[in-house]
Amino acid sequence: MACNILKLAPAVLLAGAAFLTPTIASAQITIFSEDFESLTPKLQKPIFEANNGGGIWTNLNVFTHTAPFGWTVDASGVPDSGDPEAEEWRGWSFARKDFWVSVADDQTRSQFTLGQGIVAVADPDEYDDSPVGIPGNAYYNTFMRTPAISLANVSANSVTLTFDSSWRPEGFDDGDAPQDNNQTAVIRASFNGGTTFVEVLRWDSDVLGAFFHPDSQNETVNIVIPVPAGSTSLILDFGMELARNDWWWAVDNIRVTTGAGNARSISGTVSLEGTPITAPLEGFFTVRAIDNSIPDLVVAASVNAQGQFTLRNLPPKSYRIKFKGSQHLSRVVSANATTGDVSGVVFPISKVGDATNDDAADITDLLVLISAYNKVAPALGYQQVADFNADGANDIVDLLFLIGNYNQIGESF
Q1: Residue 171 in contact with residue 181, Cβ under 8 Å?
Q2: The whole model's pTM is what?
Q3: Which residue from 189, 267, 256, 222 is spatially nearest to 30, judged by alpha carbons?
Q4: Which of 114, 205, 207, 385 makes an SS bond possible with 164, Cβ 3.0 to 4.6 Å?
Q5: What is d(CA 390, CA 90) in angstroms, rounded to the nearest whole number?
Q6: Cα separations (Å) of 161 from 149, 223, 374?
């Protein structure tokens, strides 16, 4: 069957926070949200910025260019400065806000109080501050794109994009004459998986132009998305264009909402053998309507430290739901959402041992573990995918888990 890809990473909160139920406030249903906190395990140590900000960040994991599951980042339009030490800010970066503010000498970045934890940042100013900088008349152009967002049960012209933003413009002051840099923020939308995008937001730095957006270091932006009738999915593209040594654009807490309807949510818990859930865990749920009346929905979602998850914006149907963790074998349960939201869904314990993420614990996984055996992170050769109990070592404990589940495969529909 065809699959639609959704992203529901912030569907649950971190340990100790209140569990989210379907968001229906002011006649709005949240069908997509992203706050970038699931990237915490992907953060890495600084490079160029290691000694900036007083040197306090040198040994801390503070940024990544790895996008959330299903997202893509295009930094091919960012010129190579010739200085690899500028890598933190090459295109859209996902960084701890406090790190970004500190190493960039603030310059009003700290006013972005709506952004918390990890934020998405396009900062040509800080990128250009490397010894070489943006060369000549080159531009800093970068884009980040969401996965396809399901528009099942969504009426035409009923969708709103909301996000928190920190924007500081600058232009027409860098490079050779005529100095045409014009830091520009653009959001484009595409429907039904197409390659054609329509512009839904444009800000630039031309104080005399129609799209000038002044200093707005801390604001919430709401945009009505003109969804054509019959649309089944939506992709959003966030672009920073035509910049040189200008300022920045940072975003956080991206949400797509629609007018209240009969969309359903399904919530419950998963349990993972071996691996403690100490931070938002990215896995995916495949949702299949029992009557096969709609395409399968492959829902990338975070699971919190209590194993809780919520799947949103589902048509009112009866489902079989498969959960697959990156190192674990699939489990399948049923849920009937024909008459309302469903809570309390409990998946059986997911068995560990799938280092290759092919839904089987077999010789290929054993070979990965053997290649890394007795390696301890961060040593060369250590394989996180074969660290089945997440203790930072590839050892006898991981081997025993794999032996216990050897030649088993994940459950199917």
Answers
A1: yes
A2: 0.62
A3: 256
A4: 114
A5: 31
A6: 12, 5, 49
